[in-house]
């Protein structure tokens, strides 16, 4: 039962409270997922720590080499940022697909990451971008790769005294692109049934110099598909190659979801979704020349 909602005036005060009372406190920014848990009586902690108003957590900084997004940045702010749309179309599409406009007006990218949902839309493109998370506490800063942040369904590597401050990744350059696709029960308003994001770097003659593939809702948490990346790296893109890799992706999903009622649908659906996402990523990389 919630006994107290605390709204500190400074970020320093937030970190002090987390340091002293972290085990009893839950952070709230947008609250789009947390409010549902509270209504369903799944919320266990006694105090809410409101960080919604902190401008220090709301920013999008894009320079030549690095891009950083504050954890308190709302999805609407990301969608309305023209540079994000131009440079990181896959991330932009993922953020635009989060719920209805009302949800995007409230929901934050940091909350989407820390919620630990297997179907979090913003996470696959961030995994494909090889993003790092900047975690801060009263006395220190910790950098953790996003791919290492997820421990189990609903469990993440955020310590009780920590706050996610920002997400950082490389700014895309020449011959690089990122794409995102998802399948849901209803367009935009649906939680993803499956999602896929692919970052690709091309060399001459359509050879894949580097590739990172991430999926959502195909396991306990969003994850990189390293086995597929190894199959594609240093290969020339062709219909035959994509068909071979997509079949292997279907096999991976079959093994990963064995025994689940959703396995048959997801095993079939991921094949076409993967091919489309890969083609879109190639198209984006070719635009960026």
TrEMBL record:
Residue ranges occupied by any FAD-binding PCMH-type domain in the UniProt entry: 1-174
Highest taxon of the lineage: Bacteria
Molecular function terms from GO: FAD binding; oxidoreductase activity
Record keywords, A-Z: Flavoprotein, Oxidoreductase
Organism: Marinisporobacter balticus
Pfam family membership, one: FAD_binding_5
The protein's name: Purine hydroxylase gamma subunit apoprotein
InterPro entries hit by this protein: CO_DH_flav_C, CO_DH_flav_C_dom_sf, Diverse_Substr_Oxidored, FAD-bd_PCMH, FAD-bd_PCMH-like_sf, FAD-bd_PCMH_sub1, FAD-bd_PCMH_sub2, Mopterin_DH_FAD-bd
């Amino acid at each position: 039962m919630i006994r107290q909602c605390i709204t500190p005036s400074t970020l320093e005060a937030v970190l002090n409270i987390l340091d002293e009372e972290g085990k009893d406190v839950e952070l709230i920014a947008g609250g789009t997922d947390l409010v549902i848990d509270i209504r369903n009586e799944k919320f266990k902690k006694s105090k809410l720590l409101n960080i919604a108003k902190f401008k220090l957590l709301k920013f999008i900084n894009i320079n030549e080499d690095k891009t950083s997004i504050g954890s308190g940045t709302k999805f609407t702010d990301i969608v309305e940022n023209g540079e994000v749309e131009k440079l990181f179309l896959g991330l932009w599409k993922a953020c635009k697909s989060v719920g209805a406009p009302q949800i995007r007006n409230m929901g934050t990218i940091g909350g989407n990451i820390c919620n630990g949902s297997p179907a979090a839309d913003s996470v696959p493109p961030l995994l494909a971008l090889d993003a790092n998370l900047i975690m801060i506490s009263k006395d220190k800063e910790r950098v953790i790769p996003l791919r290492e942040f997820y421990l189990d369904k609903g469990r993440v590597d955020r310590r009780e005294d920590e706050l996610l401050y920002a997400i950082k990744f490389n700014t895309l350059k020449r011959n690089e692109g990122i794409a995102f696709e998802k399948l849901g029960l209803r367009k935009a308003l649906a939680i993803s049934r499956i999602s896929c994001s692919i970052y690709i770097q091309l060399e001459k003659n359509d050879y894949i110099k580097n590739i990172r593939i991430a999926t959502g809702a195909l396991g306990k948490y969003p994850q990189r598909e390293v086995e597929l990346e190894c199959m594609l790296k240093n290969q020339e893109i062709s219909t035959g190659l994509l068909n071979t890799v997509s079949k292997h992706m279907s096999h991976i999903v079959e093994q990963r979801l064995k025994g689940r009622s959703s396995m048959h649908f997801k095993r079939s659906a991921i094949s076409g979704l993967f091919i489309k996402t890969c083609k879109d990523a190639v198209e984006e990389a070719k635009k960026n020349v």
